[in-house]
Amino acid sequence: MTGDITLELYKGSHTVVARHSPHSPHSRYSGSLATYETGDTFNHQAGAAFAYVWSLPLTRP
Fold first, then answer.
1. What is the 3-state secondary structure (H, E, C) of the chain?
2. Closest CA to 4 of 22, 26, 19
């Protein structure tokens, strides 16, 4: 993998606040899969189904 990330460090923890990876054969990040905008390649129905299944243990019988 290649690219740059920006981390925010605070009291022994970290948060990724920015990332950039040039389009190359080594890139593992795809902006079109990481957004919910029109024209992206992420299947929105799959995301809704995942959220539903993941929440099943929280529902009462």
1. CCCEEEEEEECCEEEEEEEECCCCCCCCCCCCCCCCCCCCCCCHHHHHHHHHHHHHHHCCC
2. 19
Q: Which two tokens stand for residue 24?
A: 């190359």
Which residues neighbour 41 within 8 Å (Cβ) at sequence distance 6 or greater? 30, 32, 33
Q: What pLDDT, on the 0 to 100 scale, is given for residue 13?
A: 95
Residues in CB range of 24: below 8 A, 6 or more apart: 2
What is the model's pLDDT at position 33? 65
For residues 13-31, give the mean pLDDT. 76
